[in-house]
Amino acid sequence: MVSRLVLVLGDQLSEGLSALAAAEKGSDVVVMAEVSEEATYVQHHPKKIAFIFSAMRKFAARLRDDGWDVRYTRLDDAENAGSIHGELLRRAEETGAFEVIATQPGEWRLIEALEDMPLRLTMKPDTRFVSTQDEFDTWAEGRKALRMEYFYRDMRRKTGLLMDGDDPVGGQWNYDAENRKPAPDDIAFSGPMQFTPDETVQEVLDLVEARFGNSFGSLRPFWFATDQAQARRALSHFITYALPRFGDFQDAMMNDNRFLYHALVSPYMNVGLLDPMEVCRAAEDAYTDGHAPLNAVEGFIRQIIGWREYVRRIYFREGPDYTRRNALDHQRRLPDFYWTGETDMNCLSKAITQTADEAYAHHIQRLMVTGNFALLAGVDPHEVHEWYLRVYIDAFEWVEAPNVVGMSQFADGGIIASKPYVSSGSYINRMSDYCKSCRYRVQDKTGKDACPFNLLYWHFLDRHSETFAGNPRMNQIYANWRRMDDGRKQTILSEAEAFLETLGA
Ligand SMILES: Cc1cc2nc3c(=O)[nH]c(=O)nc-3n(C[C@H](O)[C@H](O)[C@H](O)COP(=O)(O)OP(=O)(O)OC[C@H]3O[C@@H](n4cnc5c(N)ncnc54)[C@H](O)[C@@H]3O)c2cc1C
Ligand code: SF4
């Protein structure tokens, strides 16, 4: 019998993967490859490459132990063809196979590359999600706006998570209003579980250092989980020690604490080491056992079966041109300090330095610091998208692009966000301790020490008034702008212009 090739990509490290389920263990051949095309089509953070290659090597070993014939190509193997399709063709020649079974990749670029190959392709849907695309498209049919909240409620009903019959546990679907406490004085959590690199990881770290050591970000110390058992320990550590306070301080930011009560499970879910339902059930059990309060558990579950599922479906619904959208026609180049952290704006400096060190920043840092600034300054959303795709360990296009292009930059014209996520310095001041140690003064609206977010906020609203002044959710803000006297408006706008000049082209 002629064997078939079973493609397993670096973010498909799940034993229940649809491609594996459709294959025959005794006769089909699993193909896994560390290829330079995937590692370099954008210059990923070295921690991200090390995480994926380490997890791939361990997963391949696990499949072999389980009886699969795995043909694994390491980055430095002499015969490495350098791309996924090149490796598939090489393995096809080696084995005589002419058919590939794949699980749908999470990126249009790779889907198109597979479809273009001169091999017969069976592409299975990726079933590691709670929703299906058909289900989402049916839900979206005829709706004027695709608001996450309503989709999320359907996902609660579908999974039964935090449900009491047909009703949400506690009587409310969403406890977000309780989850906006500002930065606390102290954090009673020592951070995510960290793992000492074993032999497999050490070997990958040396390889990545030699090949990608000059990319943005620090490779070491490297402490992420790289197999399922470790990822489960990391999840359990979060549920025990952080989940109870996750909700309260979900949006807070601190100079001296990079993780607060966040879970750091996105990398593990995104490559397949953790299943989203397993993560949600563990959180639900913590509520049922009285270990964690409802606002924390509901907030956490909503991020996963709500936002995570929703952005996945938007990515595949909107099609391959999504990352090129630019509804606000923003053209500015990304300021250099996004690559160095060298700016007097303390919030940006802290979020970017942390990103370089950890390949991680939490949601509000991504949305309301780096994203907010790029949107206010009018940076080209495609450049912003590429920055996020490069620098975060959990960045895969299906999840990164809707968050950046849609939610953060409003470049899709409002498919994801009903209004732009912009704020002046006062939001950052309320939610963090960044402003206390900044060279700018957050309370100053104009003048040489004025917080740049304050200036740019009005500049953004003024230059986009045609687009947003009619938005009912922005009425109040525009009414405030209109009430301001003309001289003050002019001072704000000209100081904002002068600041933008300092950012370069
Ligand atoms: C501009 C921007 C870019 C982002 N890029 C990515 C990305 O490339 N990859 C990624 O996984 N997430 C991305 N997010 C969502 C979110 O910031 C991360 O999922 C989260 O910070 C991961 O850290 P955590 O596991 O500690 O999350 P927690 O705060 O502990 O949340 C729990 C889980 O909820 C899920 N989640 C929360 N918010 C979202 C969301 N908006 N979309 C999808 N899943 C969500 C994640 O899986 C996360 O692990 C982005 C958000 C923004 C605003
Ligand atoms: S004063 Fe402005 S620039 Fe400085 S940390 Fe606060 S928000 Fe950021």
Give the names of the bound compounds. flavin-adenine dinucleotide, iron/sulfur cluster
Biggest pleated sheet: 5 strands, parallel
The string of secondary-structure elements, in order, is EHEHHEHEHEHHEEHHHHHHHHHHHHHHHH
Q: Ends: how far apart?
A: 61 Å
Poorly predicted spans: none
How do the strands of the widest beta sheet line up side by side? Answer: 3-2-1-4-5
Portion of residues within helices: 40-55%
Radius of gyration (Å): 24 Å
Structural class determined from secondary elements: mainly alpha
Identify the overall geometry: globular
The strand count comes to 7
Overall residue-averaged pLDDT value: 96
Strand proportion, as a percent range, falls in 5-15%
Q: Tell me the number of helical segments per DSSP (H or I, 4 or more residues long).
A: 23
Task: Give a structural overview.
This protein has 505 residues and is mainly α. The protein contains 23 helices and seven strands. The chain has helices at 18-21, 36-40, 46-65, 84-95, 108-115, 133-140, 148-159, 199-212, 228-241, 243-246, 266-271, 276-288, 294-318, 337-340, 346-358, 363-377, 381-391, 397-408, 425-431, 452-463, 465-468, 475-483, 486-502, and strands at residues 5-7, 29-33, 69-73, 99-103, 120-124, 163-164, 167-168. The strands form two sheets. It has a five-stranded parallel sheet, with helices on both faces. A two-stranded antiparallel sheet has the order 6-7. The longest helix has 25 residues, at 294-318. It is globular. The structure holds flavin-adenine dinucleotide and iron/sulfur cluster. Flavin-adenine dinucleotide binds at residues 262-266, 269-270, 300, 303-304, 307-308, 311, 362-363, 366-367, 371, 388, 392, 394-395, 399-400, 403-404, 407-408.
